[in-house]
Design a protein that fits this description.
116 residues, mainly alpha, two-stranded antiparallel ribbon, 5 helices
């Protein structure tokens, strides 16, 4: 039950209250499960961790892409830059690329080839 509730997004305190067990018991269970390899965040398949490597969160790229597409609100996007377009002069936000010059491809084309 703990595994399925946590996979569905329930917090440790929610699981504890629903099952009528101690918060520490739920935490211990989750910690043991994570140390044993854990489960895929999307499909719940047990993961095999490679010693000395980074801990896996998903069993495959397909699960990773599917999960992140459904949970876009949980992304921590911090690399937003405000840049002035070299073509039209308006300000726009660029994510992850501070040196971007144009707000869009059509603006780039108009600026690069004005006769077109």
């Amino acid at each position: 039950m703990i595994r399925s509730m946590r996979a569905a997004g329930a917090s440790i305190s929610d699981v504890s209250a629903a099952l009528g067990i101690s918060v520490n018991t739920v935490k211990s269970h989750c910690r043991r499960e994570r140390q044993s390899g854990g489960l895929c965040k999307h499909c719940g398949v047990p993961l095999v961790q490679v010693p000395g490597g980074r801990n896996k969160t998903f069993c495959s790229d397909k699960c990773r892409h599917t999960w992140w597409n459904k949970h876009r609100d949980q992304m921590k996007r911090r690399a937003f830059y405000t840049v002035t377009c070299a073509g039209c002069g308006r300000d726009f936000e660029s994510y992850g690329n501070r040196s971007r010059k144009y707000c869009s491809h059509p603006c780039y084309v108009r600026s690069r080839w004005p006769d077109s």
